[in-house]
Amino acid sequence: MNPESLVVCDDVARTYGTGPAAVVAVHGSSCIVGSGARIAIAGPSGSGKSTLLHLMAGLERPTRGTVSWPALGSGDERAQDIGVVFQSPSLIPALDVSENTALPLVIAGVAEPDRAQRVAEALALLGIDQLAGKLPEEISGGQAQRVAVARVLAQRPRLLLADEPTGQLDRAAGQRLLDALLDATDHLAAALVVTTHDKAVIERLETRWTMHEGRLHTTIAPAVPS
């Protein structure tokens, strides 16, 4: 059975600015992310991989080409189907871990009983349920990044896009976070796309793409057993 196409980029490009000062972050790039995918987009800083991820998420519009989400909803429904994890956790200092995790659900109008269940499930999936009542200042950087992931997983997305999620963590903490990401996306049957320049992360994902100077190159390689 062929996987559903969750996001399709067709000859997308993204340019910032105009005239001589214009910067092309992504040149004409095409790719498909299917259901169940586990994809690493590798490349150095400034190669355009974060911009491509933002295009996939619908956070930015392409200057040229099209991005479509054939198997996902539209509008607010699609926003719930796509979860984005950024490099910085960006937790609200005045809210505890449970409240930070619940925030997108509150904004989306999810009823309290369902909200509480989703938050508890997400924190348990990330192994941080014991931190539920703690404030961001009371937890470590690695724990804060797990909270950021839990906040996205509580939405129960079908597509999870993670932008350098281990970039601010040491190797051990990064591997633990990746373990949790893989376990959680397996549990949710969600597709996972990770941008990274970390070789240890790249080797854990079965499909490897690379970006160089804004150009996407898609390749497939077997995952290295963990």
UniProtKB/TrEMBL annotation:
Presence of the UniProt keyword ATP-binding in the record: yes
SUPFAM superfamilies, alphabetized: P-loop containing nucleoside triphosphate hydrolases (SSF52540)
GO molecular function: ATP binding
Keyword Signal attached: no
Domain of life: Bacteria
Keywords of the record: ATP-binding, Nucleotide-binding
PROSITE patterns, per the entry: ABC_TRANSPORTER_1 (PS00211), ABC_TRANSPORTER_2 (PS50893)
Domain ABC transporter: 7-226
Family matches, as PANTHER family: ABC TRANSPORTER RELATED, IMPORT ATP-BINDING PROTEIN
Protein name: ATP-binding cassette domain-containing protein
Source organism of this protein record: Amycolatopsis nalaikhensis
